[in-house]
Amino acid sequence: MMMKLRSAWRRLTDPLSIARYRSRLGLDHPHFYTESAHCFRILAHYMPQVFWVWTPDWQRVLYVSLAYERVWGQPRDKLIQSPLTWLFSVHPEDRAAIEAMISTPVDRLPETIELPPFRVVRPAGEVRWVSLQAYPLRDRRGRVQRIAGIATDVTETRSAERRMRQLNRAIEQSAEAVVITDKQGIIEYVNPAFEKMTGYGQAELLGQNPRLLQGGSHDAAFYKDLWQTVTSGHSFFATFINRRKSGDIYHQEETISPVMDEHGEVTHFISTSRDATRLVETQERLHHMAYHDVLTGLPNRVLFRDRLEQAIVKSKRNRRIVPVMFLDLDKFKDVNDTLGHALGDQVLKLAAERLGKLVRPGDTIARLGGDEFIILLEGMGRIEDVSDRASVIVNAFSRPFHVEQHEVFLGCSVGIAIYPNDAGNIDDLFRAADTAMYRAKDRGRSNYQFFTAEMAAKVMQRVGLERALRQALDNDEFAIHYQPRVTLPSGVPTSVEALLRWERPGHDYMSPAEFVSALEDTGLIVPVGKWLMDKACGQVREWHDKGMRVGVAVNVSSRQFWEPGLADHVAHCLEKYGLEPRWLELEITENLLLEQSDRIMTTFGALEELGMRIAIDDFGTGFSSMSYLKRLPILVLKIDRSFVRDILTDPEDMAIASAIVSLGRALGLTVVAEGVESEAQLQALLPLGCDEGQGYYFARPMDAVKTGVWLSERLLADNAKRRYLAQPRGAVRMASEE
Ligand code: C2E
Ligand code: CA
Ligand code: CA
User: Fold this and answer.
1) What pTM was estimated for this model as a whole?
2) Whose CA is nearest to atom 17 of ligand 1?
3) Which atom of ligand 1 is nearest the CA belonging to 618?
4) Sign of the four-CA dihedral 39, 42, 46, 52
């Protein structure tokens, strides 16, 4: 434009060229010159840029167009009057370049002067950015006659450019990956975040179709939907499963939007996306955690219920049964107690693995917590198939587990309930399987049991019993009866056996044989056993103080042996009542010795150190090897009363009783015959050389008061006995109870 202007100017001002035009065009119109100048002036006057003409010394403005008033915000008159006002409106910081231009000797000015944009501060304070180009205009001899200039208001373009630059920078630096494609989907631009995410460089991506990244997990319908959405002018959002250059699959959360021109035609697509792999992984992990057991990775109760629900729905259609197995590891608690929780956890993992190999792929195993598992067998037609599977599982669990250097024998008890036979809904089915499992436990463990309705009733009873027992200790419902033991043949009492009694309000007498197992299962035997030992020792102290020197035998169940602190409690009781250890005897059963655990052996060691006497109760009914008799601090064998009962009629029982006495003799142990009910039984036992006897024939178990009377009659001289009996101690009746 400037070139044209300049040549136009030259032509217009140069008389020679005017003459040439005139002659060439054959025009000799008197107004030619003035008319052209007029047109030009109008053009200059209204152009959006400011057009100037200066004298070469810049001291006079010969012409300035109308735009000046718009850009500078001042009337042109003012400029004409004082030609440097335009300069004074320039921001002081931007004036240097202009001043340099003005002060340059005019013949050294270049052909074109281009000043960097400067700020013009309008009188009202508004700032405009202006760029100025100036052109010295020379005559034929090359002397500068005028200086023309064009000033352009670049405020808008400048901020648009700046915005573009910012936008560009933002996209380049964005954490979001950005891709721009043409309307065929060919990549025209990718930002660094996109390169980073995909592993491809810009050069590899430009000109490509984003199909290059497809991971193969979406079907054709997915891409068709995408294409239809964006070509119809809408945005498409999805999590794509794509493949990086390295081949890794990743998740890309992406929005693809069409870019439309002013006619609404799609010209480009712009996609913004980010790597959602971590997010997706976290979501998947959380989802997994919500439905799985952390330790074993097996489904948890929630997922199991879900699968069971589905199985039940399915079974309504295919009329198949839905068997559910409750599985409880038999000796897991012992493992935890002896090997510690870390190894216990490992055992659980191994158990879960083994279980996993015993079911079919469609079946579901879940861990309910602790050592309890539940199994859903799918597609079973016959009950026999269920029991086959159960027996396979029980057998598999009779094999040991190996953790570190330990060989762990667990065994498992399995309870089976079947939908719809045993229960009509999930909760009842769970309960039924649980009940059946407890029956398997009761039946000696390492076996499986099916649920039946009468079993459920029994369990309900048991639940009530346990609840009542939990309160019995607090409510002071327990009492101790004592049954004397006498020397044979003299009949002199040596000790009494402390027997637990539960005086349950509103209930008939219940034998401890019935409720002790509930105490053991619930662990209540531990506090109750402690209470009983303390009370029995206190009672013996009292009798000693009255001159009746008897010992007390306390029954200790295996559960108490497992509990740490048994020996400590024994020591505590002896000390509290100032009793020598020989006055306290602990009765244990042989079955305790079946479990050859370190824990039990440690307790034995501690008791031996205390000088405790240990008796084997119900001797002859257990299955243990006899070698322990030599190794452990055992001093007493109590012949089980079943052998004594039939000793007169069953020669085998007689032989067993006789063998036990001989064994005791040989090992230097005291042998006690239990359950002696008659003179005849006593007469049969005496020749064997049995040391002591216990039974209804001598005395029934009695409360403490009656026992005291009974003992005083046998242990005290007449005077002392009289004194003892005279003491106030409530009603004293004859020695019999129950
Ligand atoms: P046990 O240790 O064998 O106790 C002896 C049981 O035989 C007692 O039954 C006693 O009353 C009964 N008995 C004594 N003499 C005769 C007799 O001549 N004929 C017959 N038929 N029975 C006789 P009880 O008191 O019902 O106790 C039953 C079982 O309960 C006990 O058998 C013992 O295993 C358990 N038990 C009792 N008290 C405790 C206790 O404090 N702790 C533990 N852990 N178990 C206990
Ligand atoms: Ca006993
Ligand atoms: Ca016994």
Assistant:
1) 0.49
2) 675
3) 3
4) positive
